[in-house]
Amino acid sequence: MTIYALSTGPGVSGIAVIRISGLETANVVKSITNKELPKPRVATLRKIKNINTHELIDEGIILWFPGPESYTGEDMAEIHVHGGKAVILAVQKEISKIKNCRLAEPGEFTKLAFQSGKINLLKAESIADLISAETEIQRLQAVKIMEGKSSKKFTDLREKLLKILSFVEAKIDFPEEDIPEENLKKIKKDSSEIFNEIKKILNDQKVGEVIREGFKIAIVGPANAGKSSLLNNLSNREVAIVSEIAGTTRDVVEAHLNIDGYPVIISDTAGIRDSKNEIEKKGIKLSLKKAENADLKLVVVDAKTVDLSPFLNDLLKDDAILVLNKSDLLKKEPNPKILRFNHVLISLKDNHNIDKLILKIKNNLKNKFITDEEILITRERHRQHLVQCADHLKNFIKQNDKEDFDKAAEDLRLATRHLGMIVGKVDVEEILGGIFNDFCIGK
């Protein structure tokens, strides 16, 4: 099938780009322009017409990309027209008249690019991340992955494993051939080095995923302490309902923020207190779960009535800032025991010390995101495949010590497969090629 879709954003715009890919692309271009194809990769002004009546729809630019030298590897074209809704719909209606043409599914152009070998899975994912990037740090990370640094790293590790597997497969298929002692030592040494390298990659504090998904901040604390007001203040808009009635917030309310280029998902949660209301109880349970999974907790309390309960101490144990609100009502200094926590004294009513709180949040973000190591993992999918690879590689090293090559080879095959699945490349023929290239079997 030939696919087509609006590639620019929906809504009124100066220019709209409609993209087409597939066997019928040339036919589409000829039919809607009533002319021969333009020169490849040369922007050509053409009149876009109704296929049946030749009535003018618009005048725009046609770009023709014959396959395989195109993004998808197929014949492709782009039609640049004025971005009015009626123009876009009229052009798409004419394309739909061509046999075997249909609207593309989400991500289908990039999927075709992957299937035709134009890009690997990591690059496909980085394109999606670049499109959805809301902050500078997200954009930079997507560009780095797109450049292929992580892809090269995983491909290099996989090729090393394939080389080791070639030795092991050769021993199984040709048992009469003795593998030299130095080769056996090299198998053990190389596999251990790769295992340690993968463990090092996994020990990255999940920075890549945090950048891609957003740094999670949970606003937690007792009821009526000013949590919803704080969310609204940090968001610069009315995100949550604010009321003097305790227990107003029952569900988790989230806002996506950009703090100095860092992506943040900040959540206002239900006030934590003893309650008989079933709905409020569920909200409190969600609050505690949100706090547990957050990268940073803002524990908001009323500065006048701070309760140093075990509950408060538990919340302030790790990655937390104690926010003492309503400082405008304080008539004396807070309890010194409270001040031993990482804290800031604020007044949301007077907008006092909010800048200090934001500075503390920024410093926490910087500490979380700054790393000397290259970011290689940006999705849970990558991490799970690496974990599986490390597990099988560990088993291989154990089996290899026993010289149980049959069982060891299977673990090594699975380890190699998981690495290949990160970049979307798994090919058994590469193993066979490695055997013949390195061992000259059949001498």
Structure write-up:
Residues 240-250 and 428-443 have low confidence and may be disordered. This protein has helices at 25-33, 85-96, 108-115, 121-132, 136-147, 149-173, 181-202, 207-213, 227-235, 278-293, 310-315, 354-369, 380-401, 405-423, 429-439, and strands at residues 2-6, 13-21, 44-49, 56-65, 76-83, 101-103, 215-220, 253-259, 262-268, 296-302, 320-325, 343-345. Strands 3-4-5-2-1-6 form a 6-stranded mixed sheet. Strands 8-9-7-10-11-12 form a 6-stranded mixed sheet, sandwiched between helices. α4 (121-132) runs antiparallel to α5, α6 (149-173) packs across α15 (429-439) and α7 (181-202) packs antiparallel against α13. The protein has 3 domains: 2-115, 2-Layer Sandwich (Gyrase A, domain 2), CATH 3.30.1360.120; 136-204 and 377-439, tRNA modification GTPase MnmE domain 2 (Four Helix Bundle (Hemerythrin (Met), subunit A), Up-down Bundle); 211-369, 3-Layer(aba) Sandwich (Rossmann fold), CATH 3.40.50.300. It has 443 residues and is of the alpha/beta class. The radius of gyration is 30 Å and the shape is flat. It starts with a strand and ends with a helix. It is built from 15 helices and 12 strands.
